[in-house]
């Protein structure tokens, strides 16, 4: 039986994700972001709710990406997630994409020319953002055309790159329905962005998400629930450059902007530049919010839930890797757990996220 | 003409304070806490409002105590404040007290025996709180009876101690009306505690404070407006012992208590012990809130306001000391100004507290 790995955020889980899981083959392992996501913001609902939605709709195992993998630029995000899936025994990597490309060929090229490609990046002008640089790299070495540039496209290329040398079969799955950033509501498969935007429109949420009740009943948050805390952090710390990825330049920009703004979006607008993209600034604000430091990744893999079929696989994996299924006095990953504590501050109904919580078990035939 | 110095918090200003100012002689200089007060909490209204109330009711000059003088145990508070008043040319120190004691004699004893008295403190058991120790010290060396122990009594003794060797005439003024901590409303002169407690009772506030409208119209805060920020600080910082007066023991106690409490008062209750008094814990929480460090005191004296009579005196003083009347790009005291920024976070209507603000001028005949 194939073991398919899928990297996901499910922010929130919707019919597009369900379709992706249906297209994937064999046992399906999802490596999912925890309570903070790649674009640098809190997830709309907590990791347990999102894991349960996934398990009720096709996933067999959901494991958690540590904070410092989940909140990273595309390359680090993909690398960290693919490493975990590979450790978990995946032989196939399935991912959504808007483009019909030969990703295996792209991975092969990267495997062959990784050094030249990395060297090429170094030669590019520093006025370009990192995404712009990688785009130029792919264009030069593979001839890909970025005219239809989309976030999933960039992520898919990052997966190809991350799986180079890993003996993983790549299975791109063409996305159905709305594009990633679409805020349109009138589509069969609404995007996660549209659902977050219209989360208070119950009818729309019921139409566009399976297991909708889980989503609707969970405490929902967005960046603005954390604005006061971020502002306080920036104002109260004389130095900010102990925080991961904060340099003196960005610290100064944040310190002078913070006294004039009233929301995270205003702050991001004021601080972002061509080189400091909005996504990068949002990630930096997330690092500041949770006071992130440069840290080692945890050794164990934290399991959020599984089906019976998934449980069989976990039993086998336990012999060779460290599976963390319940976090007690010894932390799994201090950084992620601190981030979770702070995530809880965004809404008084968010439950304890780690200590003593057991994986979700979905009883169904494998 | 006598120049009388008065140490005050005016939290808020009431008829008892007005009486004290009336009893004082000559030019009246008040050294007042800024936005955080000695017992370790945010002042109910900002320093500008409190200074204006004082200037409208008898004070000639109001200068600001730097944060690290204002939020300190009685001895350091008194010492820092008396030093500033002495620098400002005060020859008399007036203060309220419940006890008719010969404070000049007490100051004389301290002047003579300071070393023995300090050595005596060292011999006392560490299970005693600092206030308990100083109480024993005064009992042993001066025979004072502490049966009617009150905060003002302790402060008055601290003033006596602080003025030792300073050539300051001590003028104790017997308090009228309610005792310091009284929460009773039915008294001619209500205590500041009672007024804070019943701040939403407009009739009571009008009865017990002069210049009531200033108080009633100002944005009012209390500790609970800052609970979310303190909780966030404790949760997000792996180490707390970089904060002034936070040691490993108190840091651990705070870290384990914070996940179980829902208010500052609950937190103080959980963390305080016989040795860590509630006042000390509140001060520590204030240090954490504003991220205070051990710092040097500022050189200049920050003037919050003056009458015409006060202005004459300031002109003379300017020749020998640094008077800061407007804070621009160069900070007066970074710690105080950071504390003020954070004070502002407690209520969205609190105005900028430092940058570009000029002293209050009250036009009246000297």
Task: Quickly describe the structure.
2 copies of one chain form a homodimer. Chain A is α/β, with parallel strands linked by helices.
| Most extensive interface | A-B, 18 and 18 residues
What is the terminal-to-terminal distance of chain A?
Answer: 12 Å
Q: In the CATH hierarchy, what is the architecture of the largest domain in chain A at level 2?
A: 3-Layer(aba) Sandwich
**Mean pLDDT score of chain A:** 92
Number of helices of chain A: 16
CATH class division of the largest domain in chain A: Alpha Beta
CATH superfamily of the largest domain in chain A: HUPs
Class from secondary-structure proportions of chain A: alpha/beta
Residues in helices of chain A, as a percent range: 40-55%
Please report the total strand number of chain A as a whole number. 10
Order of helices and strands of chain A: EHEEEHEHHEHHHEHHHHHHHEHEHE
Query: Low-confidence stretches of chain A at least 5 residues in length (pLDDT < 50)?
Result: none
The count of domains of chain A is 2
- Shape label of chain A: globular
| Proportion of residues in extended strands of chain A | 5-15%
Question: Can you tag this structure with a few keywords?
Answer:
homodimer, alpha/beta, Rossmann fold, 2 domains, two-stranded antiparallel sheet, 16 helices
Describe the structure.
- Chain A is α/β, with parallel strands linked by helices.
- The first copy, chain A, has 2 domains: 1-221 and 293-365, 3-Layer(aba) Sandwich (Rossmann fold); 222-288.
- Chain A has helices spanning 15-23, 47-55, 67-70, 74-87, 103-123, 130-142, 151-162, 192-197, 202-208, 212-217, 227-236, 248-258, 264-271, 278-290, 308-317, 334-344; strands at 3-8, 27-32, 36-37, 41-42, 61-64, 92-97, 169-174, 301-307, 323-324, 360-362.
- In chain A, strands 1, 2, 5, 6, 7, 8, 9 and 10 form an 8-stranded mixed sheet that branches. A two-stranded antiparallel ribbon of chain A has the order 3-4.
- Chain A is globular.
- Chain A binds chain B through residues 228-229, 231-233, 235-238, 259, 289-291, 334, 338, 341-342, 345, and chain B through 228-229, 231-233, 235-238, 259, 289-291, 334, 338, 341-342, 345.
- Chains A, B: Its EC number is 6.3.4.-.
- Chains A, B: ATP binds at residues 7-20, 96, 152, 175.
- Chains A, B: Belongs to the TmcAL family.
